[in-house]
Fold these 2 entries.
Entry 1:
Amino acid sequence: MQSKDKLEKEVDDKIEVEIEFTPFYRWHHWIRVFSIIALIVTGFYISVPFVIPAVNAEPTNFLNAEFRAVHQIFGFVLISMFIAKTYYFLFAKKNKMEVHSFKDIFCLKNWVNQVGYYLFLTKHPKISGAYNVIQLLAYVMFYIAMAGLIITGLILYVHNYHAGIGGLLYEPMRYIEALLGGVAFVRELHHVLMWGVILFVVGHIYMVVFNAIHSKEGTVDAIFSGYKWKRKH
Ligand code: HEM
């Protein structure tokens, strides 16, 4: 990674370089992107197997089991990223700005101006942390959907695997399953939450492109390079 000072020397004196995303943040973001894509594709397959191998006499038609195995592997990758990101959010010294975003949620003016900004009516309101209030709301809902997918996914998992982590989680997951009203509903909920994540991804990509065009600060670059550009005043 190029140093901030070196980069600043390379650009003209009207622009300054700001660190937007740390290496951990960028790695976890892209690992989650690939896991979510893999989980959506394999998840759709589990619910409606859209490819079926040609029938033959040999016991080699394990496509369904392979899709399920890939789903579970990426499921655990996603769980580890969820735990790592939660730790980072709560305890990382470099990451206090995310927590500070919550300071704005009780300021009505902030909400109104943020909506106005997206409708090209007002200037962007001053924010206390890393995210604006609408962005924060979307991220909180995304986290709730992720937590729901993980819990319901683990309930489905303990029905298939009774050794290792499956055995360890069997009792607590069956307890939550009973609270939710049975495994049929759990499977339905797991599926519906996937649609919540799909909606989030569509909105997220739209907002990223909107900000990149509107703010002209290189915000798309930042999730690859870590840096964003700001005009000096
Ligand atoms: C973005 C995250 C995820 C998405 C989009 C997703 C999507 C899906 C979908 C659509 C299904 C099929 C449900 C149906 O029958 O209609 C499914 C099944 C399943 N998922 Fe997920 N899932 C995700 C995360 C997880 C996680 C974290 C786990 C935990 C290991 C997990 C474990 C399972 C299991 C065990 C099944 C059932 C397999 C079977 O029926 O044999 N999923 N998932």
Entry 2:
Amino acid sequence: MEAVVAVYSDWGIGAQGTQPLVVPADRVRFRQLTTGHAVIVGRKTLEDFPGGRPLKNRHNIVITRQNITIEGAEMAHDMEEALEKAKAYDRCFVIGGASVFKEFYPQLTKVHLTKIDAAPFSDSFFPDLDAAEDWHCIQADDWAEHEGVRYQFSTYERK
Ligand SMILES: NC(=O)c1ccc[n+]([C@@H]2O[C@H](COP(=O)([O-])OP(=O)(O)OC[C@H]3O[C@@H](n4cnc5c(N)ncnc54)[C@H](OP(=O)(O)O)[C@@H]3O)[C@@H](O)[C@H]2O)c1
């Protein structure tokens, strides 16, 4: 299972239900990676999407403990159900949020990472893959910059 995540320099990923600092190129990369594939997303992160709607051109598997339906999405009520539904697709990305990353972390073998060289306040964090002995960076682009904020795309794999 793969994940896509943008982290700040303290491995923070967001605060109060949203990402305080976003780099447009990260959104483009996210779209390029996930379009045509499936995504597993937490119900709270879905609420932060434009209009609170599922992502277009992707199979959205929304994980929730509630008995709800969301138009344009498949619902899963625990990790096992989400993983079972993901099997129908050639490729599936875990796209957050924090609780979903935490629960799926043991399942992850590849992480498409964006490092954003800034540390706005975060209340949600992703594990520090640079400090994790069982992960290594297999590819890293040069650092780029948008409006004074440096960012870098990279890919990590579980050893
Ligand atoms: N930087 C990034 O790349 C990135 C990406 C995505 C999100 N984020 C950030 O992450 C933060 C949100 O994270 P979050 O942890 O608050 O919310 P979340 O993980 O998006 O959603 C949490 C909800 O998902 C459902 N859920 C989680 N685990 C479940 C399980 N095992 N079985 C059934 N349902 C489950 C529950 O929904 P119900 O309450 O409906 O039961 C739970 O309340 C925000 O700040 C957001 O901006 C950052």
